[in-house]
Design goal:
With about 400 residues, this protein is of the alpha+beta class. It contains 11 helices and 22 strands. The radius of gyration is 27 Å and the shape is elongated. It binds zinc ion.
Amino acid sequence: MTAKSSLAEILQHVQQQIRADFEKTRLLPHSGDAGTAREDLIRRFLEDGYLPHRYEVAPGSSHVFSTSGHRSKQIDLLLYDRLSTPRLLSAASVGIYPVECCYGMIEIKTGIDKWDTLRVGLENVAAFKRLQVRQGRHLSPHNSFGVIVAYEGSLKDETLLEKLCRWESEHDRQEWPNLIAILDRGVFGHFSQESRGLSLHTSEIVSAQELQPSRLLAGADDTLLYFYLCLVDLLNAIALPPTSLHYYASLPNTTEKHSYDWLTGNTAECEKHERYRLVLSEETLERILDACPVGAERDLAEVLNEATGTSVWSPGHLPVKVCSVYNPDKHPLSKIMSVRFGAGSRAAQHQLVQIDGRVVSLPGYYVFREQMTPCPHCDPVAIPAELTPDVWQDALGRRSVDP
Ligand SMILES: [Zn+2]
């Protein structure tokens, strides 16, 4: 190679080298060893000075966490910030990282000869890109990237693009892969009709009007060059938020899409069984969120005063200041979240839960009527249709006066 070699020629040479090394890994008798060796080829290329120094490739496979409690699947190559990333596990073969330190991930596949192989890679990318970053008190989508790199592929272009299109129609754009590079075949990504160009960054994929998964290069000779140039672009475009490990000390409960934390007790007692942990289902969480629009929050002290007909709570002086109240049937709070005890006094009867960072008060009437947190060992209770707030309060009042 002469000193005049362009970057394209250099990288074509590297690509041939990686291909040749890949052929050698076929001699390894154990498929696990071959897989590790193939990850290492791409890892070594990236570590070989091709990446700006501030970007680090994780030394082994990785798991990434969000403060929402959600985590990625196992990641082949993780790219994180060299300067700001705390080491949460001192093992060379596997690492654990907070999502706020991570730029993106690369999923390595030996060969893509059937759709299922690509689909598994796409699901891994989606699980990583779904992870939200914390900015102050709020969680928001991360501008992270997910790229799939394969050494070879026999899946036809039309099949690949058609199935990819269908898979993407079933997933949020946030979860789509940024790029798919198959070394002996070429590069695939998203072509934007408006800008007549590639939508590479996650923010562009999310905001573009019409996107078409497309082959981006005519041949395969420049696959590594194109992958490399896109990777550096992707990395340079991401500004990471500061990481506060404090939030990782105690992670909330999760369902597939949501996370929640009880601010009042997280267990209940069953008359027949032992104490059990309160669990909310995905369905219940979605119902609660639907009925509690952002912007309708109230001061918790006022809510409690209204529910108990008193003025003992001073607005703004409780640890939790504002909350939404789950009240889809618009009953008076005094009927659904308080219970009589003694001579004419009333005590608040509700559970406070933080869902996706938002505090919601669940009035006792709805917790019971909708069986939100049933004992896992009891049969479901049939709630009579005539269970009005009055009937519920009477039943509870009798029980609290005369146990
Ligand atoms: Zn029970």
